[in-house]
């Protein structure tokens, strides 16, 4: 069935900013360090901060070189093993000012106490794609089955993704289509905190949260080229009670992808662009069942993205995507500001028509404004057999305010729409 199209354009502007902190070093007896260099002072602060969180296990003590050339994967594994076995809260410290080269590494629990991984320096992926076998191509740094895990420190995780991007079939049609590693993966973790990190140039997805509960992602900077393939910023699936706040995401794919099994997710104060916007889905691929509920996207800004607020499902799937709110959003030069597509297809060949679909219901779009580069600000392509229902769509208030050749429309109120497309 043809999609319902509402010809709208939005107009708005908003700002987002951050800050910095400075500190001074002291000696053990509390006197000022008069001749301390900035590098020395930084190391003192790093160690003092880490020590306050628990017993410190520094990579350098376990044989890491931190020169960006030698393999430091064994050192990280040894430091993690010692920290995980500690009966007291432990800190795995990645010292500042160095680059620690890593191949695939899996850091597993359960641990005897809480563990904090404090990244002050940079964890950098091996540039040699041969370091990954076909069996392990989807992962780089993996945390699995850890309770009360914190990853923080203000440092960087560098996926060295350019080498992988050039081999992608989306960039080079002559190459076979294969998976590439996710930079940071969290599997079966509870009470997880990931804070104040820079994640750059991931091989594929930057961060994936899978089968986790009670998660806080805060103060993350995620950056890759706008042309990098499949480099989603934050991917969430089969997880519940997740909060994402105060993050800035610039990638070549979805800033956030919210997949099957996600329940009770709250996203706020996120800046996105370039990228494909914030997507719920795709859901129901390969005739699978999907269940997503309790999603709130609030106070988000999108700049130059392909999509804004998006829900996408395949024909042939089943299940539901319900109780979803997109509100207080600013969009600037967004191609598809609001889009629901129950006939989504990204296959090489057209997807065949099927009767079943993931049911989309109780979706709210509230206080969304901005500019679009296309004539269709709202696109609703709903299934004929399992139509979108119980939607609450914005009332349109047309105003003859011109910005170049565009008519400006501010989404202000909510009108209850009973019929489906």
TrEMBL record:
GO terms for molecular function: polygalacturonase activity. It is found in: Secreted, Cell wall. Pfam families: Glyco_hydro_28. It is an enzyme of class 3 (hydrolase). SMART domains: PbH1. The keyword Secreted applies. Keywords: Cell wall, Cell wall biogenesis/degradation, Glycosidase, Hydrolase, Secreted, Signal. Residues 1-22 form the signal peptide. It comes from the Eukaryota. One of its GO terms (biological process) is anther dehiscence. It catalyses: (1,4-alpha-D-galacturonosyl)n+m + H2O = (1,4-alpha-D-galacturonosyl)n + (1,4-alpha-D-galacturonosyl)m. Its main location: secreted. Its EC number is 3.2.1.15. The keyword Iron does not apply. Belongs to the glycosyl hydrolase 28 family. This is endo-polygalacturonase. It comes from Urochloa decumbens.
